[in-house]
Design goal:
By secondary structure, this protein is mainly beta. 11% of the residues lie in helices and 47% in strands. The chain is elongated. InterPro entries: Hemolysn_activator_HlyB_C, Polypept-transport_assoc_ShlB, TPS_OM_transporter.
Length: 537
């Protein structure tokens, strides 16, 4: 068991009252990715030969297949040589040729057998690989979605499935939009793609939980409100507000974020900022600890790869952070950082399951009045705002056969030098170490992991509960500080819980048992009982 020194215990208490660390435990804005691929309606083939084609077929030529080698259609052609073909046979031939083209990546390909004399026994089949001349959105109107679809699909050449898939998924990635289907129609020889889109211009999410600590909370409320199409098509404004409703003075946090498209290829720019204030109670009440923090950031993200099976995004962010803590009215901590980060975010089907991963490199820039090592007001005596870190987060979910599934998750960080509190990795909390409060152990470097077994049992008898998920888990990790710095340690917990949903309401009940060290709040191994009630609007 790791025994914490008195200074490490004091550091833990102050960290748990630091607004920049408290806000990490808040729920993130709900992501609304395209749920599964939108349907693509097969095109209606034109009529086959308007007049009968007579005679023995000696050879078959597919006209219009310049993007595909002639041998591609051998399986459709060979069985039909040396025979006379009826009207149904000609229709079947056209259908087989079109299907081969669709299977080769042209989803709107059609074929027909025009009326012909079949000179020399040569039968001509006309193949149209499916060119898009215009795109029309059906349902919700979105200028930004129009731009994405037109730029990607109206190219003057045959439409490839990969290009269609990417364009539809990029539209589905837009705030509040959902693509439900697409089909190609022809009018006067022009190919017009009709894309059905649904839109949600406003949404909100409210959550109440007890994941706070004795010093800040433990009951917390969080509101996430989102408005779309505010200043331009495709943009989004998100507001996150959190506080401790039973002790309103203990914690208040507000974050605003604006996102807007930069081009028709899925690139978005973001501007965000937050302010937070803490006046912790509990064991810190006599010390009159106060905390204030603020940050501002600008960022950009671009989809490098977007398919049903695999996706990859590249993002960058420039962020300025300031945090202050006061003890008995005197300044205790003062951290200032300016960071530049680059992030690769990926999602893929892997080993029979769904995997997500994020790899981030973060550099503390040596600009202005950033905090330097040795500063008497630094949150860590050896911490410095000039640093480099490499961090990752990943999870993998797979089915074990109904109703069971398995989730494996991990996170970690490497650092170039001792860090300030806001840049450290924390162990304990709702992601890793659920038997403990957030940041019961912190360090410059660390590795965290969790395994969760789930059973989705669905609707309960009586019709009140729509969805039920029971789960059990084991999680934990180890964190440490460079150059022999104080703090760090290892934690492990295990437990079980239930996630229950009724309509737009969701509940969580969880019992987590500390396995290694005692809990900071209680000083023993008593279970941590977590409750959550949430509603989406």
């Amino acid at each position: 068991m790791v025994l914490a020194t008195p200074s490490a215990l004091a550091q833990t208490a102050l960290d748990r009252a630091d607004p920049t660390l408290i806000q990490r435990t808040l729920p993130p804005p709900a992501a609304t990715p395209q749920e599964g691929p939108p349907s693509i309606a097969a095109p209606v083939a034109p009529a086959s030969a308007a007049a009968p084609v007579t005679g023995i077929v000696r050879a078959i030529t597919v006209d219009g297949q310049d993007r595909l080698p002639p041998a591609t259609f051998a399986d459709a052609i060979a069985p039909r040589l040396g025979i006379a073909m009826s009207q149904p046979d000609l229709a079947a031939l056209a259908g087989a040729v079109a299907q081969i083209a669709r299977d080769r990546g042209y989803p709107f390909a059609t074929a027909q057998v025009p009326a012909q004399s079949m000179a020399g026994g040569i039968l001509h089949v006309t193949l149209d690989l499916g060119r898009i001349d215009a795109v029309r959105i059906v349902g919700a109107r979105s200028v930004a979605a129009d731009r994405v679809l037109a730029a990607a699909l109206v190219t003057g050449g045959p439409l490839r499935r990969a290009d269609l898939e990417r364009a539809l998924l990029l539209v589905g990635d837009m705030p509040g939009l959902r693509v439900t289907g697409s089909r190609l129609v022809r009018q006067d020889g022009f190919g017009i793609l009709l894309v059905t889109v649904e839109a949600d211009r406003r949404s909100a999410y409210v959550q109440i939980d007890n994941r706070g600590s004795d010093e800040v909370g433990p009951v917390r409320s969080t509101l996430i409100a989102t408005a779309r199409e505010v200043a331009q098509s495709g943009d989004e404004v998100t507001l996150i507000a959190s506080q401790t409703p039973l002790q309103p003075s203990e914690f208040v946090f507000v974050r605003a974020r604006y996102a807007a498209p930069l081009d028709a290829r899925g690139t978005i720019a973001t501007v965000s900022g937050s302010i937070a204030r803490s006046r912790p109670g509990g064991s810190l009440t006599p010390l009159k600890v106060e905390g204030n923090s603020a940050d501002a950031a600008i960022g950009v993200q671009h989809p490098l790869l977007r398919t049903r099976a695999r996706s990859l995004w590249l993002g960058g962010e420039l962020r300025a952070i300031g945090t202050d803590q006061y003890l008995l009215g005197s300044s205790l901590r003062r951290d200032r950082l300016v960071t530049l980060s680059g992030t690769l975010t990926g999602a893929a089907m892997l080993a029979g399951g769904a995997a997500r991963a994020e790899l981030t490199t973060n550099v503390g820039l040596p600009v202005g009045a950033v905090t330097r090592a040795g500063s008497p007001l630094a949150s860590r005596s050896d911490g410095d705002a000039r640093f480099a870190t490499l961090s990752f987060a990943a999870d993998w979910t797979t089915s074990l056969g109904k109703p069971f599934s398995l989730v494996v998750a991990g996170a970690g960080q490497l650092a170039s030098r001792p860090l300030l509190a806001v840049a450290e990795i924390g162990l304990g909390g709702p992601a890793f170490g659920r038997g403990y409060d957030y940041a019961e152990r912190t360090g410059d470097q660390g590795i965290l992991g969790a395994v969760e077994l789930r059973a989705d049992i669905g609707r309960l008898p009586g019709g009140v509960v729509d969805r039920t998920q029971l789960y059990g888990f084991v999680d934990g990790g180890t964190v440490g500080n460079l150059r022999g710095g104080e703090g760090g340690g290892s934690l492990m917990s295990t437990g079980m819980g239930a996630r229950i949903g009724t309509g737009r309401f969701d509940w969580l009940v969880e019992v987590a048992l500390p396995v290694t060290d005692a809990r900071f709040d209680t000083g023993d191994h008593s279970p941590r009982i977590s409750l959550r009630l949430a509603r989406a609007f």
